[in-house]
Design goal:
Blueprint: E1 2-6, E2 13-18, E3 23-27, E4 31-34, E5 38-44, H1 48-58, E6 63-69, E7 73-77, E8 85-90, E9 97-101, E10 106-110, E11 114-119, E12 132-138, E13 140-145, E14 150-155, E15 160-164, E16 168-172, E17 176-181, H2 185-190, E18 195-200, E19 203-208, H3 212-219
Antiparallel strand pairs: 1-2, 2-7, 3-6, 3-10, 4-7, 5-6, 8-13, 9-12, 9-16, 10-13, 11-12, 14-19, 15-18, 16-19, 17-18
Organism: Halocalculus aciditolerans
InterPro entries: AIM24, AIM24_sf, Trp_RNA-bd_attenuator-like_dom
Pfam families: AIM24 (PF01987)
Length: 230
């Protein structure tokens, strides 16, 4: 499955070329356009209970769009937030692989990739997003998106790297991680910094150059407040 990522890094659009028989599942609302030779069906992912779990716990769409190529054609996809898109091939070493994606960064995946919501304990408390991650496993193409540009960090065996939790897009399951608080309570309340994720290699980590939570914290105090007068 070939993909051309256009207009990056600020307003990326994934133009994906399908060959007959190719299939792709994408987040509801991600579709921009598709050729006549590509059929689209909207349905709950993995049945009602699986979709409900993914929607409630993983903060993802209840429904997904499934695209199937009846003949050669193109589908274009874009995320809700301005930013970049990265294509990653799972299982390129010959066997299935696992990728963890933070809530809101999943865009699409080949229809033979298994997608589930997995409990990660307190250590996966990503910027207030909750205790659950999206777990992608199998062999095929995965597309993840970001708010802002995407930076990639490849960690060697035993190498450590610390990332603000609001800037994490995805990471390979070969990398271990722990979530820690910066400083004490005073630092958390007054510095604007709270939780960080300390990764330990080997493995690849994808980061986003902007944080949605940080932007909202800057924007909300500047919005007009409702009048107290009736």
């Amino acid at each position: 499955m070939d993909a051309d990522i256009r207009h990056r890094p600020s307003f990326a659009l994934a133009a994906i070329t399908f060959e007959p028989g190719d299939g792709l599942r994408a987040e509801a609302g991600a579709m921009v356009s598709h050729d006549a030779g590509v059929a689209m069906e909207t349905a709950a992912q993995g049945g009602f209970l699986s979709s409900l779990k993914r929607s409630v716990l993983g903060d993802e769409s209840f429904f997904v769009n499934t695209f199937t190529a009846e003949e050669r054609g193109e589908v274009t996809l874009a995320p809700a937030l301005p930013g970049d898109i990265v294509q990653h091939e799972l299982g390129d070493g010959g066997g299935p692989e696992t990728l963890y994606v933070q809530s809101g960064s999943f865009l699409a995946a080949s229809d033979d990739i298994e997608l589930d919501t997995e409990f990660g304990g307190g250590r996966s408390f990503f910027g207030g997003e909750g205790l659950f991650l999206l777990r992608l496993e199998g062999a095929g193409d995965v597309f993840v998106s970001s708010y802002g540009a995407i930076d990639t960090v490849d960690l060697a065996e035993g190498e450590e790297y610390t990332v603000d939790t609001g800037h994490i897009v995805a990471f390979e399951d070969t990398a271990s991680f722990d979530v820690e608080r910066i400083g004490g309570l005073k630092s958390t309340l007054f510095s604007g910094e709270g939780l960080v994720c300390r990764f330990r290699g080997p493995g690849r980590v994808w980061l986003q150059t902007r944080s949605q939570e940080a932007f909202l914290n800057w924007l909300i105090p500047k919005l007009p407040q409702p009048s107290s007068q009736s």
